[in-house]
Amino acid sequence: MLVDVHCHLDHKYLHDQLDAVIDRARKAGLKYILTSGVNVTSNRNALAIARKYPDIVKFSAGLYPIDLLGHVDVEGLPRQAEPIDIEEEFKFITQHKDEVFSIGEVGLDAKFCADQMPKQKENLQKILDFVAKIKKPIILHTRKAEKDVLDMLESTSLKKVDLHCFMGNKKLIQRAADLGYSFSIPPVIVKLQHFQMLVEMVNIDQILTETDAPYLSPHSDRQNEPAFVRETIKMIAKIKKISEEEVEKNIFKNFEKIFL
Ligand SMILES: [Zn+2]
Q: What is the pLDDT of residues 228-260, one digit of tens each?
């Protein structure tokens, strides 16, 4: 009963071998895979993938902070050359409300486009207001803007919040944990001390698993994919000193609480 709450199955690398990727995920024990859109085209592609594998893949409607600005040129993902009309995309999401499992990834990015932070924040505020209205869980990208995202979240009443790949320092981890938010941990935890420390600090009831596939692979010679969630489970079991089965059950319970 494994879950991958955040990946990009519409990315060319995974999309080109999707049947095999899904098959390996099933064999690894995955029960739910949330595929995140990042822009207008990517949302439509992600929804189509969820429809193709309805028993295991769910659609997360995303508006990546950089795509919203219309600055994207990422290899393998549909490009977003023009700024996104956010209200139009809210309409699309509302129209497909029953098929939208969650909202994300959305958030702030201060690694790229830090000079446009006011506009990024304006967009994120619109998204937070929208999420409060449609009552879906939210999956957040917080790269180098962890404190700003927490500041904004704190003034909402949103409870079903997952911080994806959270790289904030101990103080920010503690603050997010105290606010009741969850953290989804990628398999790259096998080599990143930061995530090992995060798992040590945070109660197991606030931990989820993700891959961010095809990014953040735990293996230098292979791209990431949902089947690798197993490696995160192993590492959490080691850190928390409990069995893998117990970790698996606990994380599924956390998943049910937020997403089902
Ligand atoms: Zn992602």
A: 999 999 999 999 999 999 999 999 999 999 999
Complete domains list, the chain, with CATH: 2-259 (3.20.20.140)
Ligand 1 centroid – CA 12 distance (Å): 14
| CA atoms of 144 and 147, how far apart (whole Å) | 8
Q: How far is the CA of 217 from the centre of ligand 1 (A)?
A: 12
Q: What is the pLDDT of residue 80?
A: 72
Residue 150's H or E segment, with its range, is helix 146-154
Q: Give the pair of three-digit tokens for residue 51.
A: 């429809």
pLDDT by residue (tens digit) across 69-106?
987 666 666 667 788 999 999 999 999 999 999 999 99
Judge whether 149 and 128 are in contact, CB under 8 Å.
Answer: no
Per-residue pLDDT at 144: 96
